[in-house]
Amino acid sequence: MLISFDWLKQLIHTDKTADEVGTLLTGAGLEVEAIHNFEMVKGGLEGIVLGEVLTCERHPDADRLNITTVDIGAGEPSQIVCGAPNVAAGQRVVVATVNSTLHPTGGDSFKIKKSKIRGAVSEGMICAEDEIGIGQSHAGIMVLDTDLPNGTSAAEFFGLGSDKVFEIGLTPNRADAASHYGVARDLQALINTPAILPAVDDFKVDNTKKPIAVEVENTEACPRYAGVTITGLQVGPSPEWMQKRLRAVGLSPINNVVDVTNYVLHELGQPLHAFDADKIKGDKIIVKTVDEGTTFKTLDGVERKLKATDLMICDTEGPMAIGGVFGGEASGVTDETTSIFIESAYFSSDWVRKTGMAHGLKTDASFRFERGTDPNMVITALKRAALLVQEVAGGEVSSEIVDEYPNPIGSKEITLSIERAHILIGKHIGTQRIKSILSDLGIEVTGETDTHLTLSVPPFKVDVTREADVVEEILRIYGFNNIEMDENLATTFLAKFPNPYAEDVTDVIMNYIAANGFHEIITNSITNSNYYKPAGEAEMAGLVQVINYNSEDLDVMRKSMVFSGLEVLRRNINRRQRDLKLFELGKVYEQQEGELKESRKLSLYMAGNVTAESWKQPSMKTSFHDLAGVVQNVLRKLNAGDFEVQPLEQSSYMRQGISYVKNGTEIAKLGVLDAGLTKFMEVKEQVWYAELNWDYLLKKYKDRLIAEELPKFPEVRRDLSLVLDKSVTFDQVKQVAFRVERKLLQDVNVFDVYEGDKIEAGKKAYALSFTLLDKQQTLTDKVIDSVMNRLMQQFEKQLGAFIRK
């Protein structure tokens, strides 16, 4: 947001410099990110002053030159050689002094130097309007009619001086400061000087020959709608002073009527709209919604299909403007317009926000309506605009002000505990100081006891709804820097901190995954609802909507980690980084039976080759086992290793997947992402994906990450080859083995799988290794053989295995 310092000083008197004001505003929460120097004309007419020609004589050596003496208010008159045909003694003129720089219209800049012209000394230059960049004429020097003293800055005379412009990073909660008057209100509390609301006492109704009736059908979307008609005006350029102020805040002047509406918006924070009154059919305005799909052409020439939730400003024949967002082409002000109806309304922020998002429209008006405007400013702004239109375009007020306001919006009543306020501030500043700050901010104290204040908070304070908000208002004006740091720190509240050991476990796991070549990513928890549509209604259900989203691409909280990671994969793959191993620990959100659920997931992604190309070994595509190994080791590190492996239930995202189940709860799942999904996300590689239920794992196993001393007795390995039906999984073999021998069996591993013509059709051969260990003594051959015989018997009995010798 841009705020003109000159404009601001019209609303509040201050002798402080722009830098000083910028520091004060930043301390009060209106962060001044930069202060720009704005020049209406290049160079700001610096070094160019008013002067008076005292004498004028023909140059002895040049017929077309004159030697003049000019009083520029600097003591001795300056001698200036001038070639203009109209120069004469007694004239008030514009003089460029020595060392000033001129920026002529359509020409190159040059510096004025003391010089000799045909032997005569010249100490400056008497200027034409094109020579100082304020016009096109070069017929002669400018001759002024003014009583200003010699030496007066030409910028002051023309009203074209430079200005300081504050660039303020306005936070969404500070809708009350989205104008020059709003900033002045904050400054009022900071420098103890009253902000001056522009006077509208001179407003009067000249006649009632052009009344426009108003009917508001949807009072939820439009609680207040006001307007007035002005006839007999003439559309044309705005005066220089208005154009200067609009340009200072980044606006291009259009015409005097439209410029007035923009001027009042930036001055008072109240958006306005001007309709050509002669184009309002039936001399009536109806505020309502229209049928879904109705076409409407906006001021930018774009034909849009309206939604049933769009609030429209209509006449008796159809829509004229999108309420609070954008005007229509057919009813806009043109050069031929002679009568206007000025609209000043209070629109619901929710309705305006939805409409703006639906049509991708962002305007200065919608920016303010979306955050909340002041319903009490509606009539003041309307009168201010009417007076300005009459000043810059002429005309008469030709109707009474119509004001549809069936349910007035009152102030909010908040009770403030004085003791609580001092606790939250961190310092005792006294009740009187609190009351003074609140009064300066427009918050009225309506009741007072020894312990509490009853406050009436005006509606323009959109973000002040509770006691803590009031304390924030007090503190930002009192100054955070004025709260001293005690030598002895103390607190009245101790937060309940999570078990730090859980964070240690998280660090261990994250470091392990990173050590296996994975890169950590951190992505946005807010995502695009369109990602979930291809998966069907089931996935769309339960999405947590963001109410005040600023982009259609970021409108819901993520329900799954999948899409965040795929966005990162897509970006990297599109930049030829195809061998990727990524992981993220983040939160997902879901709405279940009216309740919002939040949980943490650990996600891992693999795409491309396992290792980079090398002369030592060929590149190998990432496979299920590459990712499964990492996931299983993470579970083992958490001592959750005795899990069951089950086929993955129907998934919207994964194919060829498995679930890791512990005590009936899915603790992890992995598989290859559906090819249709990756194509939809424009990821041109097969992606293996794993997701761990991190909250559950940390809750159950955070205290089980333990270290054990190395065994004193040696492990023993025995190998076995089994021929099994193809339907038998390795996990089934593993489960049978551990049911048979729980004490001595430490690990089962498959190191080879064979399927081919050397064994019966429909069969496969597993080469398995079994690791045995007795922590109390050395294993004997007798014990080992006994264990292996029992294993073979149960493999044959339970799995129909054939033992290969």
TrEMBL record:
Tetramer of two alpha and two beta subunits. It is an enzyme of class 6 (ligase). Residues 711-804 form the FDX-ACB domain. Pfam families: B3_4, B5, FDX-ACB, tRNA_bind, tRNA_synthFbeta. It comes from the Bacteria. Mg(2+) binds at residues 463, 469, 472-473. The gene is pheT. Binds 2 magnesium ions per tetramer. Its EC number is 6.1.1.20. Residues 409-485 form the B5 domain. Belongs to the phenylalanyl-tRNA synthetase beta subunit family. Type 1 subfamily. Keywords: Aminoacyl-tRNA synthetase, ATP-binding, Cytoplasm, Ligase, Magnesium, Metal-binding, Nucleotide-binding, Protein biosynthesis, RNA-binding, tRNA-binding. GO terms for molecular function: phenylalanine-tRNA ligase activity. It catalyses: tRNA(Phe) + L-phenylalanine + ATP = L-phenylalanyl-tRNA(Phe) + AMP + diphosphate + H(+). It is found in: Cytoplasm. Its cofactor is Mg(2+). This is Phenylalanine--tRNA ligase beta subunit. Residues 42-155 form the TRNA-binding domain.
